[in-house]
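Interim report, section 4.2 (structural modelling).
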Amino acid sequence: MQKKKKSLTKRREPLAICRGHIWLDGSEGTFLGYGRVVLLERIREFGSITKAAKSMELSYRRAWVLIDSMNRQAPKPFVVTAAGGKGGGGTLVTNEGELAIKLFWKFHDDFQKFLEREEQNLGF
Amino acid sequence: MQKKKKSLTKRREPLAICRGHIWLDGSEGTFLGYGRVVLLERIREFGSITKAAKSMELSYRRAWVLIDSMNRQAPKPFVVTAAGGKGGGGTLVTNEGELAIKLFWKFHDDFQKFLEREEQNLGF
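Predicted structure of the assembly:
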């Protein structure tokens, strides 16, 4: 069995780690942030505001306020409730909502890369 | 007198504004953020923790906790208290503290530029 070798080059521990968080503001203040984007994803998953809210330990009322805030500030609503019919309607994330999810995670990924670059160049 | 001309190209209002905030973590959690950096700047300005704290509506105790947290996590202390002598000592920001202030505002400036770029490329 091979013995575990110790590296001769000492790994430089970072003295400081770059952290942060991001969100999008709209005409009324917060428009899109981590919580709202996850809520959209859960609505897509469950097709129901009640189930989406429950999965995030949010009240239905709170989830509704967040959805309403996004829908009012978006160019087109992110979440719609389909009318009854066979199978009984349900709640849907629109194409505009899907685009919002995609754009937000792109912003998040770019931000993580920005933080990594900053950390490497920090000079501490 | 020349009449004010109306631009024919309609200025595109951004639908969403990229926002965020940043800080540095150290070995014990938060190491450097906006409040801590401004506190360092005020100590440099007033040469006194009491005056610096008062100017920020912080208690002396709270300011001291923040300074102690920075000093413990920094490679070398950011704030030192000079011994009495002629003129009676006073509190100083060290060279290491000055570097921390500079590096943090550089990180902040880079972040503002990052947010502007993201906003322009957002695609909403």
